[in-house]
Amino acid sequence: MTVRPRPPAPAGGRHAYGCICPAIRNQEPTVTLVPGEGDWIFSVAAPPVLDAIRGPHRPVPLALTPGTAVALDGGVASDPRRPDDRQGAGMPVPPQRDPSRAREVITRWLTDRFPADGTPTVGSLSTPAETGFSGETLLCDATWDHRGRSLVRPLAVRVAPAGHRLLPESPWHRQVRLQELLAGTDVPVARIHGSEPSGDLLGAPFVVMERIEGRVPGDIPSYHRSGWLAELPPADRAQVWNGGLRVMARLHRLDPDALDLSFLDDPAHGAAGIGRQFGECLAHLEFYGVQDDPVVARAADWLRKHRPEEPDPPRLLWGDARIGNIIYSGHTPVALLDWEMATLGAPESDLAWYLFTDRYLSEGLGLPRLPGLPSRQETVAAYASLLGRPLRDLTFYEVFSAFRFSLITSRVTRLMTGTGIHWPGGRTPYVQSAALLVRALDEADEGAS
């Protein structure tokens, strides 16, 4: 690969974290070394996209101290000193499609969907800095010419996962329907312009929605290591965290019956609530690749023995409730993202996931938690106040979150290994999360003794 100095950043600007892309048909990418704050930051300009490539590669961000060896394994760079940088909850999406063809498809679809507006010009496609295996997101601007005046609509095109499924059961139509319903509530979500249920056009169903401007706390690198949240004063970090709690409480206050969320009430694995969530996990251990894992078996036994009653009617749950799934404008949440794991159950389940995913991105990766972020005790007190009742059995839900997170990271590890990613010393996302699951089980047992 070719290494060259990077041009200086614009006045007042900063270069974002770069990446390493694989070579394309034996054409080397151009790799740029940039001196950063104590690190050398890689960025890559890949060769022109060829017909063999299905789409933009979602690369692995790396930060390397000068003198650190970079091991290229299968065309992907790894940093043996910082393997944790790529072990966040959200992992890069492998290549999905040819961007030129995708632009043509989106242009035709918009023309057919909005015939009165004429044919738009769709700009170049990009992908968010943070994305995951749960789906592919394409960002673009569509411009219509109205009597000599341009109408520009910033769009986000969310494509259903095809070959790289993170979850065994997540019907696409349920996610789209839920987001459409939430647009009529006080829970902030992106407004949907339309959806395509078939896979005939892009190879998978997709939904076209408004693009919400803002910023999202990063998973890779963890927001506890670097990024805009780490750069905020501690008091402002607390505003970001508590803002997420407030908007999540709005979701939990919604009446599922009034919204007619019966389409989420699938009794295949039991009645709505923790019984169904746990049952879905147990039914798909082989899918996640943990059917013979002793840590998972220990956790499953513990959860069976300690499963609580859920006396209240089930509420709408976000499922993947974390600040990394919130778009912020300043310190204010302006959109909740990713509804693949949405279900019905107790609000404690969402709060436990909110807490555990943050714990994984700090303690689980060997990072100190950012000062200013409210503690578990402060978060529990704040959320009880928002719900208007004491929280019940939160320790159980935290163990369940650790259990479910370990299943998902096992799946992520298998998918990423299949794309050529390898972790020095075997410190895979699953190994890290399983260690935290053991810790959560030990803490729960100590608390009960």
TrEMBL record:
Residue numbers spanned by region Disordered: 73-101
CDD domains reported in the protein's UniProt record: ACAD10_11_N-like
Domain Aminoglycoside phosphotransferase: 153-356
Domain of life of the organism encoding this protein: Bacteria
SUPFAM superfamilies referenced in this protein's UniProt entry, alphabetically: Protein kinase-like (PK-like) (SSF56112)
A Pfam family of this chain: APH
Protein name: Aminoglycoside phosphotransferase domain-containing protein
